[in-house]
Amino acid sequence: MTDTTSLHEDGSPERLAIDTIRTLSMDAVQKANSGHPGTPMALAPVGWTLWTKFLRYDPGTPDWPNRDRFVLSVGHASMLLYSLLHLAGVKEIDRNGKPTGLPAVSLADIEAFRQLGSKTPGHPEYRHTTGVETTTGPLGQGCGNSVGMAIAERWFAARYNKPGFTLFDHDVYALCGDGDMMEGVSSEAASLAGHLKLSNLCWIYDANQISIEGSTDLAFDEDVGKRFQAYGWNVIHVDDANDIAALTAAFEAFRKTEDRPTLIVVHSVIGWGSPRAGSEKAHGEPLGVENVAKTKEAYGWPAKDFYVPDGVQAAFEGAVAGRGRPLREEWQATLAKYEEVEPELYEELDLLLAGKLPDGWDADIPIFDADEKGMASRDAGGKVLNAIARRVPWLIGGSADLAPSTKTDIKGAASFEANSYGGANFHFGVREHAMGAVVNGMTLSHLRGYGSTFLVFLDYMRPPVRLSALMELGSIWIFTHDSIGVGEDGPTHQPIEHLTMMRATPGLDMIRPADANEVAEAWRVTVRDGTHPTALVLSRQALPTLDRGRYASAAGLDRGAYVLADSPDPRVILMASGSEVSLAVGAYEQLKAEGIAARVVSMPSWYRFELQDAAYKESVLPAKVTARVAIEMAGELGWDRYVGSKGRTITMSTFGASAPAAKLADKYGFTVANAVKVAKEAMQG
Predict the structure, then answer these.
(1) Which of 38, 191, 535, 592 has the fewest Cβ atoms within 10 angstroms?
(2) What is the pLDDT of residue 214?
(3) Would 5-322 and 559-684 be classified into the same CATH topology?
(4) Could you tell me if 490 and 660 are in contact, meaning their C-beta atoms sit under 8 angstroms apart?
(5) What pLDDT, on the 0 to 100 scale, is given for residue 220?
(6) pLDDT at residue number 537
(7) From CA 263, how far away is CA 228, in angstroms rounded?
(8) Tell me, what's the pLDDT at 269?
(9) Tens digit of pLDDT for each residue in 549-583?
(10) Structure confidence by residue, pLDDT tens digits, 68-82
């Protein structure tokens, strides 16, 4: 590694800006007595070079659709991003998309690093801080998001760019570290990006060879560059993170590469690595007051906290805005002309970017006739998806190599593939984890992305599903093969605990429809309500299509739970979701034939039901009826809130088994006869 001291003794403006990033980072972490100062200090030259020389970004309009994206996948290094946002003079946008005129990150915000309610939390959080493109923290997720963002740019360019009108040509940069490279999701995402030849994607890999436990030699010594070459990436090495000329050449080489994504391997010494600064330990803890003082002395820095030298911010902001603002103004002028030449595409794009839907977008959603045999809810889901996608072309996605099973192909649409980026059908391969992170990246870029797989494989993509809820994204998760009804495939494919897991996730609407018409309503509310993620949980086996002339309308799904079948003064309430609703209806009819007044409540979405007022909840589940039975081919946990202390459940307390579905229903008690028996027991107290 070359001697770094020369960078800090030349008195140049770049030296002042880079050391400002470093000292702000160490001061913020020290004041909070919490955080990671080392990586922001080591990568300050990388951040300075990218932002002041290359990033196409207007600080005054940070939501400009064609801006370059900068993703800090190493979210623990959040002070690097906060320092860059502060120095670039990025302006705040509120949750309603309106500019406030305030700085996105002020110096006071930096001083409040990691404090309650501050705009500078420990890891960057989307929607919380303007300029943060995605929530990062769990390593690898930002890498996967960046692939989704690059995919989105390619899709936008393919659909909307016309001769003389280049509306979309932005790049996506992701800063990642050794931890990202160890996490499997990054490998999955990198493999997909290489396959798709996403030449608008640049990952900057900070190869500092330090992790929480110490040297990465403890567990990680592969040649990452060669791995990425095998993925089909262009790989560039920069031997010293302080070498501005080499960094500049690397970014220029990325900009000229047109047939593959680029990985820039930057070798840094964490915490700047000056032995006399005492900062070589500075990965996961503050430097300490004495080491902060020594480090500032080594930089030739005043003994002041949160010091920004005169002219540094103005020069930094001037460099970023001086390039980005004219590009944004030119883009807006192009868009105005585009409206005249391509009015239909302009109107579509305007709706898309505003998060709105076309008039009549749901006009083709089918109404399904009553049918005792019915159809699998996955089949109904495919029909409804196609009906909507014809009118909402930015509803796009695919599956983890399971489209024939999840029924998520958009009929007649092309596939999104390398050098053919206008397709609507995505092939994520057997990469559930990356699929989730990529779909979130697509959704962060204004698309309505969806990803599908079997419900049991939620285990392989739980982190991006959780993050979609944390970020309040409209990502759509389609999970089929939702129960022991899978049958012969056995317990490895029969989800038991997964419904509980999703119901426990704040902000995630999990909808498990009972029949084809509930599927139609589930898709309707999912596409309509794009401010939170939705998981559609669908069956492989056929479900009877209920007679909605005899039973209540499926439109009740919008309120989460509704009275499907009723009797005057019911003595017992049967409640269920999904495939078990028809079983509850069968039990209701038998009880009715025996003169026992019962009620059936379909509960496709607990999330939606909990948003209703107390009066509605009481109308569905009256407190005076304490005899209640919940029926669901999944774990019992959570149903106690609805059945009460005197209620009963017919649920799973073990994993399933390999056998025909009918045999499993008998074994585990999912029969009309057993439901009637348990209902009578509940009435007896």
Answers:
(1) 592
(2) 66
(3) yes
(4) no
(5) 74
(6) 98
(7) 7
(8) 80
(9) 999 999 999 999 999 999 999 999 999 999 999 99
(10) 999 999 999 999 999
Segments of the chain with pLDDT less than 50: 1-8, 272-282
**Exposure on the CB side of residue 486, measured as CA atoms within 13 A:** 25
CATH number of 559-684: 3.40.50.920
Burial class (CB in 10 A: 0-12, 13-18, 19+), 399: buried
Is 0.90 surpassed by the pTM of this model? yes
Please count the other Cβ atoms lying within 10 Å of the Cβ belonging to residue 616: 15
In angstroms, the CA 671 to CA 592 distance is: 17
Helix (H, G, I), strand (E, B) or coil at 229: helix
CA distance 433 to 286: 33
The residues that bridge with 537 in the sheet, in sequence order, are 479
Tokens (6 digits) for 163: 């001769």
Spatial strand order in the sheet of 562-565: 562-565, 598-602, 572-576, 628-635, 648-652
Q: In residues, how long is the chain? A: 685
**Are 436 and 451 in contact, with CB atoms under 8 Å apart?**
yes
Where do the domains of the chain lie?
Answer: 5-322, 371-544, 559-684
CATH T-level topology, domain 371-544 = Rossmann fold (3.40.50)
Q: Which contacts qualify for 120-123: CB closer than 8 Å, 24 or more apart?
A: 120/28, 120/78, 120/79, 120/82, 121/78, 122/34, 122/35, 122/76, 122/78, 123/75, 123/76, 123/78
pLDDT score at 5: 37
Query: Is residue 432 among the annotated active site residues?
Result: yes
The correct answer on CATH 3.40.50.970 for the domain covering 5-322 is yes
Q: What is the pLDDT of residue 4?
A: 37
pLDDT (0 to 100) of residue 571: 98
Catalytic residue among 432, 518, 521, 632: 432
527 with 572: CB under 8 angstroms?
A: no
